[in-house]
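Exercise: predict the fold of this chain.
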Amino acid sequence: MRNLATKIEDYLLFHHIHKDLSPLVNGLSRPRLSSYNHLGNHTTCQQIRKYQYNMRLSLEFFNLISFLEILLRNSISSAWANHLKEDFPMIHSNFELNFGYETDSKTKVFKLDRRGNKVKTKQFENILKAYKAGSKTANTQSRAMINGDVISNLMFGFWRFCFDAHFISINQTQISWIFPHHDMNKRKPEAVAKKVRIMLDEINDLRNRIAHHDKIFHKKEIRKVHLFYILTLIKWIDPKALHFSNYKRINILLESGWSFFEKSIYDDFPPNTF
């Protein structure tokens, strides 16, 4: 995304906006750019500026989501270690024995431990792939495998599904450990876990739109839902972590709108604003 934004800026810098933009328009595609033509009265240059604005906003949101993902997976990993009274079980040589499995009439499930915390087959397969990838990384670097080798190879979707009651129940029992700064307010752990899953679903939807270079700045819920959910989950994990995030940049972009790029497409963020 950053490379594409740079290419657009370089193109406009060296060829100037009053010259032929057809190569760039053809590269991005006219149908894609037309979705940025509000009420049909925007010039090609304005459409490109809006596209550039959308990419900058998408980049900042993707960075913030990635920041949340790191905090979340480390917090979940810590909760699992606390619950199982050992490090993340996948780093042990008796990995398969730690999980075991049982078969019922409907589906095969894998158990985390003797307490009955279960992971369905799909989740188990994701864990197994991450374990193999982490083991390969450790072997390549001629060192012992560590917890981070496994969890860093588990995708955002894995952590999202961890709060689904049908996949893994351990996070419901450890919800206060995962989100130590959440005010439970007498709410049941299951209710909090359900809310977290809803929030992560919305965040994942935004993440997918960003990955496909879809337009996001026009969505009314971008601030009230997506940004609010991301910042809320970060605060529930560690309020101080917000100071290391880029949410202020996102607020600047949202407040200014695409006019952020209207006067000069070469301007960056105002100095001394972060």
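Check your answer against the key: The beta strands are 101-103, 108-111, 118-120.
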